[in-house]
Amino acid sequence: MSANNFRAIVIGGGPVGLTAAHALQRAGIDFLLLERRPHVVIDAGSNLVLNPLGIRALAQLDLAEPLNAVSSPLGEINRLDHNGRDIGDVHLFIQLAAILGIAPRVISRHDLTRVLYDTLPAEAQQKLLGNKKLSEITPTANGVVVTCADGSSYEGSIVIGADGAHSLVRDLMRKLSLEKASSEQVNAEHPFLTTYRALWVRFPRPTAIPVGTVSETHGTKLATQSFYGEETGVIGAYERMEAPTTDRIRYSQEDQEALIKRWGHLPVSSGSVNLTLGDVYDSRLESGLVSLEEGVVENWSWNGRVTLAGDAAHKFTPSTGAGCNNGMVDIVALVTELQTICSKTSDSALSSSAVDSAFRAYQSTRYNAVVSECAGASMATAAATWQTVIHKFVDRRIICRHAITKFLISRGAKSAARSTALDSAASEPRGSAGQPFGAPTPGTLLRAH
User: Fold this and answer.
1) pLDDT tens-digit profile of 301-315?
2) Domains and their CATH numbers in the chain
3) What is the SS3 assignment for 241?
4) Which of 36, 160, 340, 381 lies at 20 to 30 Å from 304 by C-alpha?
């Protein structure tokens, strides 16, 4: 395959896939995005938190300003136990803003995908195809052919799997590894372990609850997190399962109602508005019950033809809001590597081994960071659900100590900054800790084409 006709086929049109469209467009790499739903912009799904890592990556693609216009900064985290008693506020988001120079923000999935779609150039929007459910990936001498369930097929150089925790791209990559006897690249059939299930509910924000409010309820076996945006709030109720499993579990409406029967009495706010989990569920605009898979896939790519990003490669519990954000950082890292190998080739052949080296460099750049993030998210969920006596003690007596959280954030700032500084960058503003992690100069991670 030639660098002049190098084309990436992105599978999945969620936030990570749309970030890939932006990054590839900016890097001057041709692409096609295939989404199984009719359109990438949908008014459905839970709200999301954009953290400093994700915001910094998106700022490199000139997306920070339009996203700020439709999102709300988050402040103090108010925490209760199951009996409604105050267990100490946490200033994590406030400290992140002060130390790193970027405030975490809450945004609806609709607004996030709308901005990511609308800010693409018209010619790039034409490359986003809906109603395209992946069926098969066939390697060829010069690249890949992707076949969809409707019988259509598309030729490309590589496939980027941004299709979530239950990734069909990952399944087909494993199949290719087994067929080609590439035993050293074969991933586990079920790479993620599920210890928690989560009920998420999106509901109208009560007018008495200020925008940007964050509330949590902690206690044995179940914890909740609530985030309030301009129009809606979203709550996640994380319930520890009877036993961990690697099997995929599908839940019904009856399962949601059974969880509410068990836990609907729990308080999820304090002050002038006293909401219970049952109250929130009764006022729901949308809701869903899902498994919270955790883990990091061992091999993120196959043979210079297929690679994974986001939840397809690593899955965290949502307690720290790190999942989607790390997927966006994945994309910046991956496309930077692809741009580097393409820029070194004009009319000469770009071999699959060269692409494979880029894929491996991408995974090497990101792997340790996501393993650490995954462990941190797991620890946060275990602490909030008081999994052991030690978790309960840490949650009630340690996490609420502002000096401790400030120290931990400051200590991690330097490595966090390094994890996204993947290309030569202009000098960036600094947070109060003096770390080069402030609001970045747009376009410094990817060289504009």
Assistant:
1) 999 999 999 999 999
2) 3-191+295-420 (3.50.50.60)
3) strand
4) 36
